[in-house]
Amino acid sequence: MTLDRTVMPGAEPEPAFAPPVPSRARLESGMSVLVAERPKLPMVALALVLRAGSAADPGDGPGLTDLTAAMLAEGTESRTSEEVADEMERMGSSLRVGVSQDRTVISAEALAPHWEGVLAVMADVALRPAFRDGDLERVRTQRLTDLARIADNPGAVARRALRALLHGAGTAYGHPASGTEASIGSMGRADLRAHHARAFGPAGATLVAAGQVAAAEVTEAAERLLGDWRAQGRPERPDPGPPDPGAGLGRAIHLADRPGAAQSVIRSGQTLVPRHHPDHAALVVLNQVLGGEFSARLNMNLREDKGYSYGYMSSISWRWGPSALVAGGSVQTAVTGPAVAESLREWSEIRSDRPVERRERDDAVLGLLRGFPSGFETQGQIAGRLVRMAAFDLPDDHLARLPEEIRSVSLEDAQSAALEHLRPAPDVVVVVGDRAEIEPGLAELGMPIVPIDSDGGRLA
User: Fold this and answer.
1) d(CA 177, CA 414)
2) What mean pLDDT comes out for the span 134-139?
3) Which residues pair with 428 in a beta bridge?
């Protein structure tokens, strides 16, 4: 065979990829079970998705859900914290507990022969936490230490302040999810037990499993281990507060001083529609163009063109209530003012002077579609996808339909989403850096500068 090296070979067809469609069952307690059978790798990933998130915190108790969740793995009525850890270690696994604004997730991975033993421990910590005083004091001390250090972490300050300013400091989505030193210091065992009984329960909960396991076996084990779960209360989705409190702040730069900082952390954002809005896919594509990938506008401007930052991106945190579009990165102290100006310019131009172009739309859709299969490489990744499905009550064929939903977003859809949902400027701009060095440059932008503390509170 003669090879003609003057002719460029054609591209191979893209391999077909079919995301899993999980099976579903419902227990007598009302809990759902989602299982994706993936027999090729002898691993099983498990996750218990509970409806209570940090938005369920009482108004006078920020951080209560997070502290309650942290205590779940610290011992049960029949196991001490050491016994929980030792038993999981013997099975080659460990428990993870994470809290977001809309959900709490207890998760673990194990070799296939041990999945049922791991599930038994997960069920025990979810249903029968002991909240022993000694364990509580140890965890409380760790939390108070972490809270005291927030002021020394510019990224943490920026995230905490932006949340409070964007959603409103006293709202379900705006209060500090990890609490404050005062609130964590005042919470006792009785508070945690009452909150667990009220907010943590089977209503709206889902057990997720992915891996070398049969759906019928998971359902049977779940019914045996979790079927008699009866909570005293029924968790309701809390009111997340007004849809866009940040819009009433006026254009200003909220500046948290960190003397001597070599870099400034910039975060800007606005509230968006909830996850179930019909424009979800169009907004995903729009964010991809604005700052969702390396070649997006923000990063190409502030990193590649200007050299202000090692990376400047944007992302959408989807929620049942108002979601949040946030852009930002760390920049050199000397260029803080110009970096904020460029970020605001990109934000404005994508909805007006320089709308999404055909090439940008095509690259964004292609990037999302080509990156989609890589999110299913491990059992843990598959379980993570199912967790998000469960958290938002998405249909069982959601993953199978998602590529086509992205593919069907037209150029006009992306441009329309920018005009419809993006405001001319972010609701909130937060900068954390050396005030003495960066304030003169920020002042040149002609926006009021509001000094804030680590929680976004206005300083005199």
Assistant:
1) 33
2) 97
3) 269
Residue 447, classed as helix, strand or coil, is: coil
Cα–Cα distance measured from residue 65 to residue 200, given in angstroms and rounded to the nearest whole number: 9
Looking at the whole model, is its pTM more than 0.90? yes
Report d(CA 457, CA 164) in Å as an integer: 8
DSSP readout, 176-213?
-TT--HHHHHH--HHHHHHHHHHH-SSTT-EEEEEESS
The answer to whether the CB of 314 falls within 8 A of the CB of 233 is no
Residue 287, SS3? helix
Distance in angstroms (rounded) separating the CA atoms of residues 158 and 148:
15
Spatial separation of the C-alpha atoms in residues 305 and 460, rounded to whole Å = 38
What are the CB-based long-range contacts (under 8 Å, 24+) for 21-25? 21/396, 21/397, 21/399, 21/400, 22/210, 22/386, 22/389, 22/396, 23/215, 23/396, 24/396, 25/215, 25/219, 25/222
Residue burial 266-275, b: 16+ Cβ < 10 Å; e: rest:
bbbbbbbbbb
Question: SS3 of 326, please?
Answer: strand
- C-alpha–C-alpha distance, residues 207 and 222, integer Å: 8
Strand extents, DSSP E, 67-170: 96-99, 104-111
- In the chain, what is the greatest distance between 2 CA atoms, to the nearest angstrom? 81
The CA-CA-CA angle for residues 409, 395, 40, to 5°, reads 95
Q: Is the dihedral of CA 156, 158, 163, 168 positive or negative?
A: positive
Q: What is the mean pLDDT of the chain?
A: 93
Task: Give the confidence band of 342 by pLDDT, cuts at 50, 70, 90.
Answer: very high
pLDDT at 244 over 80: no
Range 307-324 burial, b when 16+ CB lie within 10 A, else e = ebbeebbbebbbbbbbbb
pLDDT over 80 (residue 246): no
- Quote the CA–CA distance of 301 and 335 in Å, as a whole number: 13
Burial class for 447, CB neighbours closer than 10 Å (0-12, 13-18, 19+): middle
Under the phi-then-psi rule, with left for phi > 0, alpha for psi from -120 to 50, and beta for the rest, what region is 40? alpha
DSSP 239: P
Element (H, E) at 297: helix 297-299
pLDDT digits (tens, 9 = 90+) for 9-37: 776 666 678 889 999 999 988 899 999 99
The pair of structure tokens assigned to 216 is 């019928």
Q: How far apart are CA 108 and CA 110, in angstroms?
A: 7
Q: pLDDT confidence of 3, banded at 50, 70, 90?
A: confident
Amino acid letter for position 279:
D
What is the spatial distance between Cα 129 and Cα 131, in angstroms, rounded to a whole number? Answer: 6
Task: State the DSSP H helix or E strand holding residue 44, giving kind and residue range, or none if neither.
Answer: strand 43-50
Backbone CA torsion sign across 126, 103, 24, 234 = positive
Nearest to 423 by CA among 337, 347, 370: 347
